[in-house]
Design brief:
Helix content: 40-55%
Structural class: alpha+beta
Order of helices and strands: HEEEHHH
Number of domains: 1
Shape: globular
Number of helices: 4
Largest sheet: 3 strands, antiparallel
């Protein structure tokens, strides 16, 4: 896999990738904080991790807070309809 191919796949997930000065790859949400970043030296790992990061429930909130996306409207609905902390019965 080339960097260009990985970059396209990761961008299709609405995530970002960049090559670091140390020949590693940094995956993150658009405009996401450093604490969300993932570093690897394997492009396939970068793509797989971006997909996993994007599928986590926190991903929707991170995208909403740090870098609007194609799903921003849907995200807002899903976050408002589902309580984050259900009341104990």
């Amino acid at each position: 896999m080339t960097f260009t191919e990985a970059k396209k796949q990761i961008r299709d997930l609405n995530m970002t990738i960049r090559r670091t000065d140390y020949d590693d790859y940094r995956v993150n949400f658009p405009n996401g904080p450093e604490s969300f970043a993932y570093y690897t030296n394997d492009l396939a790992d970068a793509v797989q991790t971006a997909a996993r990061m994007r599928q986590t429930p926190a991903a929707e909130l991170a995208l909403r807070l740090y870098g609007g996306s194609r799903i921003a409207g849907a995200t807002l609905v899903s976050l408002t309809e589902t309580p984050l902390y259900p009341e104990k019965q």
